[in-house]
Write a structure and sequence with these properties.
There is one protein chain. By secondary structure, this protein is mainly α. The chain has two helices and two strands, in the order ααββ. The chain has a two-stranded antiparallel ribbon with strand order 1-2.
Length: about 100
């Protein structure tokens, strides 16, 4: 399977993206490279005993509501907490956002 310029145009249209006409060949080449890589990966034999390679797939854990408990108490690795929430420093790139952000 290979991707054509028309395929790229159609996907861009579906994603509501505007692609310049001169960029199409680059996208076609990149997508065909990705597909070639995926095709090569299909030829790699699975590891013996790999649960993902079996028909059963990976064993699933029970789907139960609630948070996963931490191995350590949060105060041991969190620099600061308030009312059960982690406090993190404001990023330098967000200094201009003001207090309300």
């Amino acid at each position: 399977m290979s991707v054509t310029r028309e395929d790229v145009r159609r996907v861009a249209e579906l994603a509501r993206l505007t692609l310049p006409e001169e960029a199409l060949d680059g996208y076609v080449m990149q997508l065909n490279g990705i597909l070639a890589h995926m095709e090569a990966l299909q030829g790699v034999p699975p590891l013996a005993g790999d649960a993902m390679a079996t028909a059963e797939g990976m064993p699933l854990r029970a789907d139960v509501p609630g948070a996963t408990p931490l191995d350590r108490d949060a105060v041991q690795f969190a620099p600061a907490m308030r009312e059960g929430f982690f406090l993190v420093p404001r990023l330098a790139t967000h200094e201009d956002a003001g207090e309300g952000a």
